[in-house]
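User: Can you help me understand a structure? I only have the sequence.
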Amino acid sequence: MINGMKKTVIVGLTIVFYSCASIKVDVPAKFAAEATNMHVKGLRGWRPSPKLSFGKYFTSAVKKGLVAQKEKNNIPGSFLGTQEMLHLFNISKTDITATEKNKFHYKLSDGRLSAEIICLEKFTSQNQQLGGPHIGLYSKTLNAEYYLTGFIQNIKNKDTSLWNLQLYSKYNNAENINQFPIVIPGIEQAGYLIHDNDSITIQPVKINKITTRKNKTDIPVRLLSGYEFRIDDGVIGIVDILNDNIWLYNDLDDDTKLIIAAAASAILLRKQNH
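Assistant: Let's start by predicting it. Here is the structure, written out as tokens:
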């Protein structure tokens, strides 16, 4: 019942979003006044090896590939007390663990500096499926984990500029079931960019308002709209995953801008986004 309600609300909101509403990432006003916003071209539509461009940045053809995909079924020994109860009502129950791994590899350049980006993403979910002549087929996600791991190499400074990109989200249905507003899967999200002693945190940006033709409207979900790149308490970059935009703080040096642009483009290229 709860899962069905969530799906109904999310589908309904999706129709609203694409018909009469504008959804924008929440960009701090002070940061926006001191940053450059660049729209990313080349993401939309089906392309086996897309090429992206934004501002002065452009990529090589992005090489993508499926590393592994598997599904494991497990029929447990008890439900509603005993397995006999299932047989009594002619109900089948299956726990399904699904795992998918994908990789992508490309280069990014600003015309002078270049970086090589290699990423691996892994998605694992545990789902429960019930079936029977009187209930039809019902399934729900119990928990899920997503990880994006990547390496960003400044080609000009190979010995000193290898950055590690990590981004993850975890969802546990038991933690969300009685919460309102409704929480979309991905309840725990975080990430970082690390190079030696340098660290840039990646924090999710969520919104609970949409802009319609008449006014701003509250919605019953906190929708993931993008990620902030932060050093200490300051925002130095933002990636808008709903509208395919990348913001870079103007006062950053070119090498740091290249790394942030590389990480932001990698986040936009994830299969999870599509």
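Now, to help you interpret it: The first strand starts at residue 21 and ends at 22. Residues 2-20 form the longest helix (19 residues). Let me know which part you'd like to focus on.
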